[in-house]
Amino acid sequence: MSRSTRSIVALAAVASLAVGGASAAMARPMGDSSSVTVITSLPKSGNKTVSVPGGNSVKFSITSNASTGYAYTVSSSKNTAESKVSKVTYVAAQTDLMGAPGTSVVTVKPLHAGSTKVTFTLTSPAGAVAQRSSVTLNFMAD
User: Fold this and answer.
1) String of b and e for 41-78 (b: at least 16 CB within 10 Å)?
2) CA distance 93 to 65
3) Could you count the other beta carbons within 10 Å of the beta carbon of residue 93?
4) DSSP characters for the chain?
5) What is the pTM of this model?
6) What would the pLDDT profile of 64-79 be if each residue is shown by its tens digit?
7) pLDDT tens string 82-95
8) What is the CATH number of the domain that holds 29?
9) Which domain holds residue 13?
10) Do 72 and 56 meet the contact criterion of CB atoms below 8 Å apart?
């Protein structure tokens, strides 16, 4: 796939997310010359599907606040892309303000074209599920 075709496909993926209520943006190339698709919001409930251009990995960067006691966990199923899904990493806000929200980050790196379903569960301090939503990533061939 040529660079201009890949750019058009990436823009189409971003536009489809914007229409569907989730946010995504293309970020700078990674060290191995592939790109990363950044997703900055999750569906409130249910499942969303995102088409990811060939050669891209995905980075979820979701606003969260560890000081509240609520925390995200992540699991994956339907992984025909044989993606490596990282654990959730919390990145604190770069501020001196107490209680400022940070970001929960998860990366998904596919081995090849296929689908990976990633489920995010937000759990309260008492252990109750506050929210559960899934994103199915359809990794396209190069």
Assistant:
1) bbeeeeebebbbbbbbbbbbbbebbeeeeebbebebee
2) 9
3) 14
4) --HHHHHHHHHHHHHHHHHHT--EEE-PPPTTS--EEEE----SSEEEEEEE-TT-EEEEEEEE-GGGS-EEEEEEEEETT--EEPPPEEE--SSS-TT--EEEEEEEE-SSSEEEEEEEEEE-TTS-EEEEEEEEEEEPP-
5) 0.73
6) 999 999 999 999 999 9
7) 999 999 999 999 99
8) 2.60.40.2020
9) 3-139
10) no
Query: Is pLDDT above 50 for 114?
Result: yes
Q: Are 72 and 86 in contact (CB under 8 A)?
A: no
If one counts the domains in the chain, the total is 1
Phi, then psi, of 124 in degrees rounded to 5: -75, 170
C-alpha 43/C-alpha 48 separation (Å) is 7
